[in-house]
Design goal:
alpha/beta; 34% helix; single chain; 9 helices; five-stranded parallel beta sheet; five-stranded mixed beta sheet
């Protein structure tokens, strides 16, 4: 169902009205499992994708937030660069999938902030960035793209165009990262590096334990028996150690020690009595 809504958008002293279609169900995705890293990485969790909007215009930010929420995106607001960077620092517990970054902020230049985000040494450095500005200078657009922005939208803008560009960037980023990183809340599994991180901190697993965790994570939400786990790990060619086949429970216990906040009450790898184990889709 589509509902027409007339919104007044304000920026740089210019007010303009647009009548646009707000995509509600069935067009708005209640949950998106394509990406995540937050944004960082690829989310296999059923949750709304989260956008961080860094813009000092409170009224425009509220309008963008409401429009994107109606389209199935969650939006965090940061009125200046400092609070925007603080939100990225907390991305381990509050995942972010994309940054909307205003070029002119009260405490920072948007181009410089984009450069600082790209220079970070955590997963936030890989987040897609869409820059917003009231300037129409092609030089700003070129510089923004050269220093790492993924797209550029000039104000005043049509909200449908902004939404379309956000979705296009997320699709591109998701495809680029899908082969490398799985992300579940604070847990990141890096396929290329064969490593894991909790809230950005590396955790140690043996090769066999990593293989077992990856098999579970790739099938999040499915209950897998011990026999299925042995078959899957073996059939994927990740291990052929007979001792591994006889010690699934021991390996699960050691994986939990590395990734669970409380091994006595695990929330990532859950035991299903009489059936096996399930890797939780939704995690903190």
């Amino acid at each position: 169902m589509v509902r027409a809504s007339s919104l007044a958008w304000l920026k740089a002293g210019m007010i303009f009205a647009v009548t646009t279609a707000h995509p509600l169900a069935p067009h708005a995705p209640a949950g998106n499992r394509s990406r995540q890293l937050s944004g960082v990485g690829v989310d296999t969790i059923d949750r709304m994708q989260r956008v961080l909007l860094i813009d000092d215009d409170a009224r425009l930010s509220a309008m963008v937030r409401d429009y994107l929420r109606a389209a199935g995106l969650e939006v965090m607001l940061a009125p200046d660069g400092a609070r925007g960077m603080a939100a990225l620092d907390a991305a381990g517990s509050t995942p972010i999938d994309l940054v909307l970054l205003d070029l002119m902020l009260p405490d920072a230049d948007g181009l410089d902030l984009c450069r600082r985000i790209r220079a970070r040494r955590d997963a936030a450095a890989q987040l897609p960035i869409v820059m917003l500005t009231a300037k129409g200078d092609p030089f700003d657009r070129v510089v923004g793209l050269e220093i790492g922005a993924d797209d550029y939208v000039s104000k005043p803008f049509e909200p449908r165009e902004l939404l379309a560009r956000i979705r296009a960037v997320l699709r591109r980023q998701g495809g680029a990262l899908a082969a490398s990183v799985l992300r579940f809340g604070k847990l990141e599994i890096d396929r290329d590096a064969r490593g894991i991180r909790i809230d950005g901190e590396p955790r140690s697993l043996t090769s066999h334990q990593y293989d077992l965790l990856l098999v579970l994570a790739e099938r999040a939400g499915r209950v897998l028996s011990r026999e299925q786990l042995m078959d899957l790990v073996g059939s994927d060619g990740r291990t052929s150690d007979p001792a591994f086949d006889r010690s699934i429970d021991v390996h699960i216990a050691r994986i939990r020690s590395a990734i669970e906040d409380d091994v006595r009450a695990p929330k990532r790898i859950i035991t299903v009595r009489g059936a096996g184990y399930v890797f939780a889709r939704q995690q903190d």
